[in-house]
Design goal:
The chain has six helices and twelve strands. The protein is of the alpha+beta class. The protein is globular, with a radius of gyration of 19 Å. The mean pLDDT is about 85.
Length: about 230
Amino acid sequence: MFDFSQLSDRINYGLKKSGKNQSRLAEECGVKSSSVNGWTSGKTKDLMSTVAYKASRSLNLNLNWLITGKGEPEGDPVVALDDDETPSDDYVQIKEYGVRCAAGNGCEPTYEEQTESVPATYRRSWFQRISVNPEHCKRFIVSGDSMEPILFPDDRILVNMADTSPIHNNHVYAIVYGDEVRVKRLIQLMNGDLIIHSENPQYPDETIHKGDEINFRIIGRVIDKSGSGGL
């Protein structure tokens, strides 16, 4: 019986659902069979983001669910509706915004609704499952390749703007640093320093030392992505 609280439960569920064996998964993820054995046995508690991405594709699992255990195992929480279909109370629509930060504006971003974009329709039960108020969320468009292969240019991200503290260590956030809006993984160190990490190894880590956060602000935590980037 799977309870999905552990990575091993989620990997074993994916293997059973897909009908693949550990050797096939290892091959498709570009890792050794002994590594996959560590995933399924519980010896490995977390996956590197690049490996998790490959595993989610191999097993056809929701990437966020595979990493955190939150949300739905399969499928996209975004629902496709017909043009003339009105969403019921079981669904909630999230609008898309552009975000920018003007130099000298004290790291205060401004948001502009993208009126030409159709709001995304999410299952309300998905928000309830992850304990997030949809009224606190906005969707943004990803630009640049610094977060590949997790996020690609023109992917859409859903940001919980009520989550503005990096208490979820090693998670992805939308941030303002200097006069730039970025999407990065934040890693909190024991001494209070904060590492701004890009998934693409071509971009080096940056460090914000404790007490030097004057040009830094967290917009919110990324809780979902959608798009065909990388396909």
